Amino acid sequence: MALTGSLPRFLFTGRALQVITHLPDFIRLYWRLFRDPRVSVLAKALLVATLAYVVWPLDIIPDFLPVIGEMDDLGIVIAGLWLFIRLCPPEVVLERVREISTRTGARG
After folding, report:
1. What's the sign of the alpha-carbon dihedral 103, 104, 107, 108?
2. Which of 7, 75, 84, 89 has the most CB atoms in a 10 Å sphere around its CB?
3. How far apart are CA 39 and CA 18, in angstroms?
4. What is the dihedral of CA 51, 29, 36, 81, to 10 degrees?
5. 88: burial class by Cβ within 10 Å (0-12, 13-18, 19+)?
6. pTM value?
């Protein structure tokens, strides 16, 4: 799914709900890519670092600042997850996406 346009337009057009309903598929994709031996160690280290940042008690901008404190966490997580996909070989990502879509298509 190509995301084009501004973020507010994306959030208020119902596409955000579409992304939320596909969260289990995204989790499956990241897990399968993480376990795939064709994905580089650098990409895997980035994913681990991104997830570690979420649970790490220290933040770039403290969470006690309303809204801004949580937004930096969200921005770092989104950027890390996006970069992880970009660092994975495209053919591996496509293969894993097809596996997941076939599996969910057979269920639904």
Report:
1. negative
2. 84
3. 27
4. -40
5. buried
6. 0.74
- What the block records as the tokens of 16 is 């955000």
Sign of CA dihedral 78, 41, 52, 72: negative
Per residue in 11-61, pLDDT (tens digit) is 566 677 777 888 899 999 999 999 999 999 999 999 999 999 888 877 766
The C-alpha atoms of residue 74 and residue 40 are separated, in whole angstroms, by 24
* Residue type present at position 9: R
Q: In this model, does residue 3 exceed pLDDT 50?
A: no
CA angle at 94 for the pair 89 and 100, rounded to the nearest 5°: 130
